[in-house]
Amino acid sequence: MINLYFIGSAGSGKSSLTGAFAGWMQNQGYDAVTVNLDPGIENAPYVPDVDIRDWIKLRDIMQEHGVGPNGAQIIAADMLALNTNEMKEIIESYDTDYVIFDTPGQMELFVLRQSGKYLVDAFGADRSIIGFLYDPVISRNPSGFISLMLQAASVHVRFNVPFISILTKTDLLADEEREKILKWSTDFMKLDDAIHAERPTMRSQLSIEFLSALKSFGAGQKIVPVSSQYGSGIEDIYNTAQQIYHGGEDLSKG
Known about the structure:
With 254 residues, the protein is α/β, with parallel strands linked by helices. The protein has helices at residues 14-27, 58-65, 69-79, 84-92, 107-111, 114-124, 136-139, 142-159, 175-186, 188-198, 208-216, 234-246, and strands spanning 2-8, 32-36, 50-51, 98-102, 128-134, 163-167, 224-225.
């Protein structure tokens, strides 16, 4: 069993990718379980097999603690750890190949709060993979792309598990935009040149050495381009995950 966590900024497409990946697995004859960890999600594009909303409801937290939606999200994030054992028991009752975790929309609630790290460790960090989502709109500009690289490095350091970088919603990008972003992920000279072209005064602040340091923390790696809407790239995520834990061998089809 592989635990695959999709983590990314709000609007980066975590829920859509969760549904698309689970659907692809099913179509291929593989088994996957979906887990929703976002108590504030509405109209999810998939039906979770395990849903944190069965234990935690934002409206109840707001009423009980007298806080607004943002405060309720923070309290809910800390409450994740309290329900880990129940979720783990349900997940382990499934005979499945993959467990796909749709993490909270506000990334910092899962990444920076202690409950997120506790949950990953409790479910088995030794069989976990982080899929970090690069938002295509933010990634269009070199400064935005580097900001996401910094976030990716922070996530990698925080959880210290194998890592897959994923460029989502590529159907929103023109071909030349997509290729430009993919080149930035592997050729820091091109990224450095793009930053200089965007903001000439930044060359003294950002350097190849700085970008190389990010790479050492796992932020600079080849990005998998994906479109959940059209299903492109989903197989590449699967192949990468299989390479990490199974030497590239396919799962046995049920």
